[in-house]
Amino acid sequence: MTPTGADAAHASMAVADAAERRWAIIVMLIVVMLLAMMVFTGLHWTSMPPSRVETIDPRKLHISGEFVEDNLGTTLGADGKVMVRLIAQQYSFEPQCLVVPAGMPVTFRATSTDAIHGFVVDKTNANVMLIPGFIATFTTRFDKAGERLMPCHEYCGTGHEAMWGRVQVLPAEEFLAKARSGERMSCVPR
Ligand code: CUA
Q: Does 154 contact ligand 1 (Cβ within 6 A)?
């Protein structure tokens, strides 16, 4: 016998309740999974959220200040710290090839002269956006010596896919032997 009247209404309410509860649980599971992914990528890949805002006038980069051409590249400071300065512009990085030591902290300072570019070094957590008017700063460490690719990974115009550079990771001793305090290094032939 099929239920009628109040019975039927009651049965369909129970069905609706069960469906709502089921979907509430599924949505909660999705939220928990997304949070877990954020925690996992944050900790495991050591993602670095932007920690500061430093601005610069992109129209005057080439003329004066720390991003003039002969100040770009890698330096070993008197304090033993390794600093890399570079700029991105349509459609190349300057310098095209960076020299860095393996196993030592390396600080990058970079910016863009024109559009938004992406800076990423493959197989590492070095990954920032280069935005005109802002200086991106981060410190990272390269585990293994060898050559890495450094493609632009933000679409920046018609030449985007041809915009990439190289990073030469040298064993620390070799790097230190080459670097003299204060001298700028790059692997671009000059
Ligand atoms: Cu620069 Cu894409």
A: yes
